[in-house]
Amino acid sequence: MKLLKIKNLFQRFRGKKTEKIDLSKLSTLKGEDDSLVPTLSYFDLVGLNGLEIPPNIRDRGYQNEGTSGDYPFRTFILDFGPTTLSTGTLDALYRAGAVNVTHYLTKLTKSQAVRLYKQAATDEGSRLLNMIKSGNDIEAREAQKSLDAANRLLEEISDGFNDGFLSTCLVTIFARDEKVLDQLGMIMQDNLIGNDHHLRIAYNRQKSGWISTLPIGNNRFTDKNDRRFMDRTAIVAASPFYSSEIPYSGGVPAGVNQHTGTMEFLNVCAKYLPNYSSLIVGASGSGKSFFNKFVSSSQIQLGYRIFSIDPDGENGPICRLLGGREVEVRENADVCLNVCAITEEEVEITLPTGRKVNRVVVPVGPKTGQLVKFYDKIMEGLTPEEKAIVKVAIKNTFNQFGITEDPKSLYEPDKTPQNINGEITYIHVRKREITLSDIYWQMLLATTINPDKNTFAYEQLKDPLADRLLRVCRGYLRDFPDGKLLDGQTSFGDGHSVDSLLDNISWINFNIKAIEGSDIYDIVMHILFVLGWEYFVKRPSLRKYHKRIKLEEGWRMKRVPGGMEFVEDSSRRSRKYNAGIDVITQDLNPFIDDDNGKALVKNATSAAFFRIGQIEMDERLQLKSIFNLSDGELNIICQRPPEDENDDSRGMCILRVGGSTAYIKVTVSEEMRHFIDTDPDWLYQHGLLPEVEEAV
């Protein structure tokens, strides 16, 4: 469409009116004479009432919007400092409100770019020599940095690994009055000056600036002094959407990039990541569980070891298919999860010589703290007197079993012969684990007269303050339904020791759906996580493997005293054990409302944000602040649910690894989908809905 003159389109000066066209008469006019029918452009329909650039004011103009009045505006030219921008540098512009930001880019040929940067390197070298001669050390260091950057960029362009562009960045700010306009300009300038960028007012060129920031590609600023050299990295960083690709560092296929059409890979254990924990968040039906099972199955193929806590019992089919083991946790079953289980761990110490070494110890102190928090949960709050009784009982139990910080204290002193592959081998056998019954017996010894070890009965109390403690804890011993699950030697119901089971399988999945609604549900989740940490993450024989603890609906840990704190601490420490914590949740609010929970999700260096639905503005701003999300990313995450059956947004998410982000759609083969999809309609269409087993 041919553009009309700017003067007629935008009616820039007040008092000058253009001819109005009666749209209802267009058909009549066309019938009489086609040459009389005017062509309406986009600007005819959305054009402003007027625009005024006062002749006596050089740094602003006024945009008239009818009954809304005049809005002052000011146009700036952004003068870049360094050639290479860092991600988020221009956020102060993109998030300032009513602001138009336009980048005009002209790609240089390779010879032009090389010639330009040879000159830049020469100029920086001359500046460095002058600063050294004048004794200005600070400026000399800055000149040296610029010279190094110029030489590096020159090499990249010469070798064909980078390109050169000339860029003009124009910024037009709108406000309700001149005072607010000045304040916005100062705020934006303060945010940019820290990165050596600044806004330069386009004096006497406000009209040209206003036109140039309109989305019509009409750049009125072509002077050499208005343009700046930029490379490809700077152009990507200047985009409001942080990054369109994730650097390949191995890992597993995650989904198809919706911008480039290529496959993106997720490597939660990439060497450049500060820790290996990750976050998967999304509303029900958005695809988060599908994604988790898809990634988990691929990780198993790469040799990972997985310990998963499965509240909905969804992981069983894919876990068994890949040679894993599913443990169904239910009351009155043969499974026992001993909250008192303890094993060795490696700690870093500094020798008198200053050298750091790893030493294997038994964490008696931390384990005592975990057990005190367990009793605090089942007691719904310990009194100071009750807490003292619990601590003494735990201490006496460790002493009774001879367990100290020495790893040898966990094993029997004498070696026991074992028949391994037809050969007799003598090995140290672990002592039996401390149980809740052992601790309860120490409570009885300290607070009652003539206790019976077999029945846990006693004649009378020596300490009346222990009455409530003994009554409540009695219900968690092995002769009660809850106690059968919690009080005893750790067992997964197959007759094998826990040690050998975790050594010989790649994936162990704990299905806790059977106890959903039970009053010990949250406690069991916490115990399982502690078990995973003690027996799985810290296990020396598994040190060589990449390990993952998959914690679904981890917000429940908030209900257990110290639970969220323990998970957060584990996520920070897991990397030195070659492990990471994967938190999968529908709702982030329980984490954000808890200090330890917030630290946990912020500490995750890998994340997949699926659709979480429409949320309030305060929540959007909180998400934006905590995870450093752009407006474009937030719009994807906070989109409304699908509106019709043709909507194909399920499985789309924002994938983040380190500082790189990509917009992907999770895509799997039909064969894989049979094992990981939980959509009832799809399962019904393919005859995969679970059948009801008939009684014999």
Commentary on this structure:
With 696 residues, this protein is of the alpha+beta class. It folds into 4 domains: 6-47, no CATH class; 65-237, no CATH class; 253-328 and 506-656, P-loop containing nucleotide triphosphate hydrolases (Rossmann fold), CATH 3.40.50; 338-489, no CATH class. It is 37% helix and 20% strand. The chain has 25 helices and 26 strands. The strands form 6 sheets. It has an 11-stranded mixed β-sheet with strand order 9-8-26-25-24-10-23-22-11-21-12. Strands 1, 2, 3, 4, 5, 6 and 7 form a 7-stranded antiparallel β-sheet that branches. Strand 25 and strand 26 form a beta hairpin. The model is unreliable at 1-32 (pLDDT under 50).
Short structural description:
It is built from 25 helices and 26 strands.
Q: Could you list some keywords that capture this structure?
A:
alpha+beta, 7-stranded antiparallel beta sheet, elongated, 696 residues, T4SS_component, P-loop_NTPase, Rossmann fold
